[in-house]
Amino acid sequence: PHPSMGSPAGGPEAVEGRAVKRLKVTFKRPQARVGTDAKSEEQPVESTAFDALAEEASRKFEIMDDADVGIVKEDTFTFLDLKLKPDHRNRPVWVTPDRRVFLESFSPLYRQAYDFLIAIAEPVSRPQCIHEYMLTAHSLYAAVSIGLNAETIVKVLDRLSKVSVSKELVQFVRQTTQNCGKLKLVIQDNRFLLESPFPGVLREIVKDEVIARAVKDKERLARILGSGEVGTRQAQGDTGFIVRKDVGSGSVAAEITAIDLGGDDVAAGEAEEDAGGVTHAIEILPSMIEHVKQRCLPGSGSLNYPILEEYDFQNDKMNPDLVMELKPTAKLRSYQQKSLSKMFSNGRARSGVIVLPCGAGKSLTGVAAASRVKKSVLCLCLNSVSVDQWRHQFLLWTNLQEHQVSKFTAENKQMFSSDAGVLVTTYSMLTHEGRRSEEASRILREMQSKEWGLMLLDEVHVVPAETFRKVIAIVKSHCKLGLTATLVREDNLIDHLNFLIGPKLYEANWLDLVSQGYLANVQCAEVWCEMTKEFFAEYLKKENKRRRELLYVMNPIKFMTCQFLIEYHEQHRRDKVIVFSDNIFALREYALKLRRPFIYGATTHNERTRILHHFKHSNEVNTIFISRVGDNSIDIPEANVIIQIASHAGARRQEAQRLGRILRPKQSMVAGSGKGEFNAFFYSLVSKDTQEMYYSTKRQQFLIDQGYSFKVITGLLDSMDAAEKSQLCYSKRDDQINLLTKILVAGEAEQGDEVLTTDKEQAVQQEAPTVARRNVSSLAGLSGARGLSYLEYSTGASSSATAAGAAARKPKKGNPNRERHFLFKYRKRFQK
Question: Do residues 248 and 274 lie in contact, with contact meaning Cβ atoms separated by under 8 Å?
Fold first, then answer.
């Protein structure tokens, strides 16, 4: 027990010195047991991986406080090493030497402490009572971007913490933030200025060969390099730099550090202000911007001066203004105002990422940011449906007219005719490398030649992908704002957003928004479905390895459970239900058998819009089946039930995105229903004793870290009598055998998950597996009954029409692209 919890008789207080018994972790190599030879059993196994693991663990858990005598190197870190402050009960935070921070959400200072911690640390897990955060290099980089410095961070942490902040943590914060925030890339009057309040930093980096080539004015560069050895008085004079007034970092840093601890508070004025009041700058060539940013990245071989991007939009007189104001009906919530204050605290627009849950108003936040900048806006989305939704949001919340908000998709290629406006398009329309129509090429050239004031990137977590990250280089924008609900990727490329877009500016807590009524109160449940005897027998067979996913997805018990849940929520609760399935074969079979509409990648845009319209506004369509195309950027506020029958392996982001489809506040919450009442339901159907159970556990990890809990339901259909169960599909054994036969004869091309195409003009290219495929067909299909038919060609030259047609089809002589079959390559030579 910790000393604060009381000490038993004969405990640590009764013993002098460091007589406290500590927990120790020892690492032993696994022994190689070969036969029964005793000598061979004592021979340790040589394992480089195990050595690395042991060394890393020892390094992490080693006691780092050298001043604490009596601690040997083998001791591990325990909470006994943390000494509580006398007034620890009034402080809400634990700060450990391994950079972890724990926050008590039941503390009266929770709200103030949360605003500070979310600015300096990455959230790891945020359940109901205790939150865990981690101080990382990227999180401290984001903290410096809003005006915080190392001394302020350490001081506020020490004031909030129940224990003293360790020396190692203080050293880590100071070393990490030593060079952060000293360089800013400001776009003013269409000039790219690299500025810093520290002239010595600029003088140091221009000595680099890449930075020197990027400086536009070589005469200034010569004066800067020549003033390096001059005295201090001359250095403050004409040194070649562009000297301007420093706008500072704004009031955000002072606001989030103003925490009242009852006499032991951190005053707002203690945040360090930028000294001197002036900043020094050099102009950079636009063509070298990407090279300069790459060269200044932290890491070995680089200059280790991360660049912050800011846009001085108020003094931009070169680009035309866009007269755009929010309507009086657009009222921003408190967390939306906080996120925007991080972006505009010093009168400039900072580039970065804002993380808000699905249904929390990301669209309104982006529209409000655009109305603040008042320049041309380029909004990038994932698909055509989200393009229509974003265009509707701009027209709904602002005073813009329809001709000022254009959309550029495969079906509608428009561009606003005025000098400034809003263009909404998809990522794939910009990154498409194939052939384009003349109109699309013209609009793309106009987009590339234009300087955009703000680039809004919806679902920004897709940008690190190799295809979509090209957007940053194609379009020139002064400020970039990324919006997402799930800042997570399975390929661990999410950290690239810190340099492709900018640091994370703000992240809201899901459960806090639920308790405040901004999000629906969702009951998450994992429903276990027993596999039938015949299906499980086929699942275990080795030759059915490629069909295992389809077997546990098409499990008849899962099918019956899905039908039971749909009918229950439609008939008894009048709910709107969305059923998700990544497997197209299962999606089609479920939807056709239950007579419900379904949407997948091949569904046309008009048909998607029609189905979604009927689902939202008609009582006749209460359930729709949808594939992976519904994971992102589809706004369906009427839905309040999700049933997941097939998903993409263990994708954590997909689970959270699908939950977000039902997170919008429901009418029952607005009417003042009970606080703890669930008004939305998320069911994940899992076939028991299959690989799907492992994937389900992994997918839920992100939501569990956000504070959600999954209730496991078993035997859902056991309470039904025989008459009710007989009304469900595939309740009879003969029907189950027929379904199993249909699955076993299905071709491999029909069994896999859907491969999405984000737009008509570009498909995501994936390497096809080099395996033989066999598709079961029939004579009816060969005779044309399935849309196939034979084509007859005439090879005779008797008729003049045929001869003329053959002459027209004959390629020109000497055509270099003409290829002939090797059997006919030397035909004329043999004829001679």
Answer: yes
Say yes or no to pLDDT of 56 above 80: no
Q: Is 22 exposed, middle or buried (0-12, 13-18, 19+ CB in 10 A)?
A: middle
Residue ranges with strand state E in 670-778: 680-687, 710-714
Query: Which of helix, strand or coil describes residue 266?
Result: strand
- Tens digit of pLDDT for each residue in 265-309? 444 444 444 444 678 888 888 778 777 877 887 665 678 788 888
CA pair distance 154, 721, nearest whole angstrom: 65
Rounded-to-integer distance, Cα 67 and Cα 61, Å: 17
CA distances from 418 to 323, 430, 451 (A): 11, 21, 14
- Going 566 to 570 to 573 to 579, the CA torsion angle's sign is positive
pTM greater than 0.85? no
Q: Yes or no: say if 454 and 378 are a contact pair by the CB < 8 Å rule.
A: yes
Whole-number Å distance between alpha carbons of 759 and 429: 7
- How far, in Å, CA of 554 to CA of 583, rounded? 10
Residue 611 has pLDDT above 80, yes or no: yes
Q: What is the predicted pLDDT for the residue at 294?
A: 74
Mean pLDDT of the chain: 76
What φ, ψ does residue 132 adopt, rounded to 5°? -120, 135
- C-alpha distances in angstroms, 208 versus 199, 221, 238, 292, 816? 15, 12, 22, 10, 50
Structure tokens at 558: 């899962």
Answer with the residue of higher pLDDT: 128 or 157: 157
Contact (CB, 8 A) for 69 and 82: no
Reported as a pLDDT band with limits 50, 70 and 90, residue 622 is very high
Residue with tokens 């560069």, as numbered in its chain: 221
CA neighbor of 350 nearest in space, from 358, 360, 340, 359:
340
CA–CA gap between residue 159 and residue 116 (Å, rounded): 12
Whole-angstrom distance, CA of residue 487 vs CA of residue 698: 16
Is the pLDDT score of 25 beyond 90?
Answer: no
At CA 174, angle to CA 168 and CA 178, rounded to 5? 150
CB atoms within 10 A of CB 482: 26
CB-based contacts of 6-10 (< 8 A; 24+ apart in sequence) = none
State how far the Cα of 601 lies from the Cα of 599, in Å rounded to an integer: 7
Please report which residue ranges of 527-640 form alpha helices under DSSP H: 533-540, 548-553, 556-571, 584-594, 605-617
684 has which bridge partners? 526, 644
Question: Residue 194: beta bridge partners?
Answer: 185, 282
Nearest to 494 by CA among 38, 744, 136: 136
- The residue written with tokens 């999606």 in the block is 587
From the number of C-beta atoms within 10 Å of its C-beta (0-12, 13-18, 19+), residue 78 rates as middle
Q: Which amino acid is at 663?
A: L
Could you tell me the CA-to-CA distances from 669 to 334, 522, 656, 674, 707 in Å, in that order? Answer: 19, 12, 22, 8, 20
SS3 803: helix
Q: Are strands 242-245 and 623-626 parallel, antiparallel or unpaired?
A: unpaired
Type of residue found at 556: P
Contacts 24+ apart (CB under 8 A), 696-700: 696/526, 698/650, 698/652, 699/647, 699/650, 699/651, 699/652, 699/654, 699/655, 700/524, 700/526, 700/652, 700/655
Note whether 535 and 743 are within 8 A (CB).
no
- Which amino acid appears at position 621 of this protein? V
**Best CA proximity match to 118, nearest among 86, 163, 156, 85:** 156
What is the SS3 string spanning 360-411? Answer: CCHHHHHHHHHHHHCCCEEEEECCHHHHHHHHHHHHHHECCCHHHEEEECCC
Check residue 164 and report its DSSP letter.
Answer: P
| Of 22 and 180, the one with more pLDDT | 180
Among 383, 439, 364, 377, smallest CA distance to 404 is for 377
What is the Cα–Cα distance from 505 to 427, expressed in whole angstroms? 23
210 versus 822: the higher-pLDDT residue is 210
